[in-house]
């Protein structure tokens, strides 16, 4: 959006049709790059290797690179055809957008890699490199070329010691919005605890897990608020009568919370970090990425991490009470929020991408 607001034409390609409403919903044009009837299951079913789900978290993280890589590979023909009709000056891709560097190499234009959250992508990159060897070989490569710019949104003190140089950028929370009611942005008690486990409550039947978390939080006089999708709301209301719940944009409710309890999703983490809200993190032990990110937040003093098995009634209550009563957690969270706020705004980074587009062709000629 920063580039669009700077006067540039921006096109967003969608490898999955599920993303098209989201892209269009934020006011950007969406380009379909796969058969609408071809989903991940159909793509992975073509190769039995991709149907394997390793039990080891590190192996699973690397396997996710194979998954991302194959999903991206099926878009390449459509991307090349689109680029012939609409030649881009620069290609910007997220951490899992492995078609982006391949297309940029083919077209001879700069490639910008954009960080999603604070996770280290090297294991996923290894898997994607293995998966896309034929596509790399077509371009005379054995591995992905280094991006011309990497945009990192990690608070500086949370960056890994061996992290490559990057263009830092302030991450600004944004969610699908709704008509707000006062309870969504105005706390009704001295203590407010937010609980969210993402958007798949109804789809993956996670009512029991969510109910257990909410019922286990027993901080005296605390108000519990649950951001949840509309399709999940009826099932939750049948179980929990006295909880504030509904589709509340997380960027609206997070600043009203003293603590945010969640399963360590990257966007949820970043929203809490941006507003200086300490966190109780309950990552899935099988997800290396979530555990690695949660560990760094805990080491910074801005949260407490529990396994799902540890998140019993007593431990959850004590963890929330510890964060509410011990000011060091809130102080650490606010310090990280100040780091984020001090980073260059997207509008500044947009100007640096403009500079890259203007200077990179000359550098390549030299």
UniProtKB/TrEMBL annotation:
Annotated GO MF terms: transferase activity
Domain of life of the organism encoding this protein: Bacteria
UniProt keyword annotations, A-Z: Transferase
InterPro entries for the chain: EryCIII-like_C, EryCIII-like_N, UDP_glucos_trans
Record domain Erythromycin biosynthesis protein CIII-like C-terminal: where: 214-354
Residues in Erythromycin biosynthesis protein CIII-like N-terminal domain copies: 2-198
Annotated transmembrane regions: none
Protein name (database record): DNTP-hexose glycosyl transferase
Species assigned in the record: Salinispora arenicola
């Amino acid at each position: 959006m920063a580039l669009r607001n700077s006067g540039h034409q921006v096109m967003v390609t969608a490898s999955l049709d599920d993303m098209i409403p989201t892209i269009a919903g934020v006011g950007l044009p969406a380009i379909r790059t796969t058969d609408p009837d071809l989903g991940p299951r159909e793509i992975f079913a073509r190769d039995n290797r991709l149907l394997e789900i390793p039990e080891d978290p590190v192996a699973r993280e690397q396997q996710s690179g194979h998954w991302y890589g194959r999903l991206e590979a099926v878009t390449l023909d459509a991307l090349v055809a689109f680029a012939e009709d609409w030649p881009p000056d620069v290609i910007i891709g997220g951490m899992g957008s492995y078609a982006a560097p391949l297309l940029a190499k083919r077209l001879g234009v700069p490639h910008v890699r954009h960080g999603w959250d604070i996770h280290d992508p090297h294991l996923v990159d290894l898997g994607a490199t293995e998966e896309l060897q034929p596509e790399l070989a077509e371009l005379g490569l054995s591995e992905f070329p280094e991006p011309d710019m990497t945009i990192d949104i990690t608070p500086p003190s949370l960056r890994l010691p061996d992290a490559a140089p990057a263009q830092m950028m302030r991450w600004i929370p944004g969610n699908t919005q709704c008509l707000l009611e006062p309870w969504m942005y105005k706390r009704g008690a001295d203590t407010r605890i937010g609980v969210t486990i993402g958007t798949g409550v109804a789809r993956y039947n996670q009512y029991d897990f969510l109910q257990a978390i909410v019922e286990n939080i027993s901080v005296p006089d605390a108000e519990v608020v649950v951001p949840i999708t509309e399709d999940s709301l009826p099932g939750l209301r049948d179980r929990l009568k006295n909880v504030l719940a509904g589709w509340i944009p997380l960027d609206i409710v997070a600043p009203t919370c003293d603590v945010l309890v969640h399963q360590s999703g990257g966007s949820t983490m970043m929203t809490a970090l941006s507003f200086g809200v300490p966190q109780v993190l309950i990552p899935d032990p099988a997800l290396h990425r979530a555990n690695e990110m949660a560990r760094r937040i805990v080491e910074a003093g801005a949260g407490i991490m529990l396994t799902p098995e540890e998140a019993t009634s007593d431990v959850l209550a004590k963890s929330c009470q510890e964060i509410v009563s011990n000011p060091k957690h809130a102080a650490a969270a606010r310090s990280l929020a100040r780091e984020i706020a001090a980073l260059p705004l997207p509008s500044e980074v947009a100007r640096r991408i403009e500079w890259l587009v203007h200077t990179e062709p000359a550098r390549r000629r030299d």
